[in-house]
Amino acid sequence: MAKRFSKYHGTGNDFILLMGTGERETLDVGLVQHACTRHTGIGADGLMVLWPSEQSDFHLDYYNADGQLGSLCGNGSRCAVHFARAHELFEGTTCRFEAADGLHEAHIDANGWVTVHFADATLAVEQHGGWFVHTGSPHHILEVDDVEDVSVLVDGPALRYGVYAAQNGSNINWLSQKDNAWSIRTYERGVEAETLSCGTGAVAAALYLHQTHALPSPVRLQARGGILEVGFSAQEGGFTGITLKGPATHVYDGIWPW
């Protein structure tokens, strides 16, 4: 494993990025946990390793801060695309990569914003006092009067380890509207904390808002770390043409004793 890493964030959702060398391997749980731990490690919501791929420009392994391989990470994927171009894994502005849920296409615009194309999604369904939709990762959506009043670190784990325990947990999202703008907060499984932004959560929220409030595509959401934009095409029974767009910011490079 290369010792050199890059630190990125996508609207405050921060990640450690590495180039995989040699045969693709699974990282040790403790190693990932140590690196992601704030104060005593590098500090991050997750860690990603980019490996060579015969099917696309690169294969992306995403690890949650708890050290376990995770499902699709929307903001992480956007950061990985930026990192991949910086390391000349593709030329131009468009690439294809493999993630936990399959093949994705992505592109970088003139302002450096990265758009990732998602797999199709089914309609959100009502359950457990809210709505559930899978957007590469599982998400429970709750609409509240004001997201700033939510006790994320209390209510999030109660749902994640309560009604969703049998499903290996779910990310929990809260939405509120003020002056025609929608805000979102997220408790992320695997991180086991609130993150400043969640890409797959923003996608889930946008699909829910179209389904229940007829918001047209694209839907813009205000996360604590910044704005994310979600595009889609509504079809009978679900959604196609789903995209997540936002900034991917390179913070710094460093060396870590992997």
Brief sketch in words of this structure:
17% of the residues lie in helices and 43% in strands. The protein has 258 residues and is of the alpha+beta class.
Task: Note the topology.
Layout: E1 4-10, E2 13-19, H1 29-36, E3 46-51, E4 58-64, H2 74-86, E5 94-99, E6 102-108, E7 113-117, E8 121-122, E9 125-127, E10 130-134, E11 138-143, H3 152-160, E12 171-178, E13 181-188, E14 193-195, H4 199-213, E15 219-223, E16 226-235, E17 238-247, E18 249-255
Parallel strand pairs: 2-3, 4-5, 11-12, 13-15
Antiparallel strand pairs: 1-2, 1-18, 3-4, 5-6, 6-7, 7-17, 8-17, 9-10, 10-11, 12-13, 13-14, 15-16, 16-17
Share of residues in strands: 35-45%
- Mean pLDDT reading: 96
* SSE arrangement, N to C: EEHEEHEEEEEEEHEEEHEEEE
| Quaternary structure | single chain
Number of strands: 18
CATH-assigned homologous superfamily of the largest domain: Diaminopimelate Epimerase, Chain A, domain 1
| Class based on secondary structure composition and strand pairing | alpha+beta
Number of helices: 4
Q: What is the domain tally?
A: 2
CATH architecture grouping of the largest domain: Roll
Briefly note the CATH topology name of the largest domain: Diaminopimelate Epimerase, Chain A, domain 1
The CATH class of the largest domain is identified as Alpha Beta
Shape summary: globular
Rg computed from alpha carbons, rounded to a whole number of angstroms: 17 Å
CA distance, first residue to last residue? 7 Å
Major sheet summary line:
18 strands, mixed
Poorly predicted runs: none
The proportion of residues forming helix, as a percent range, comes to 10-25%
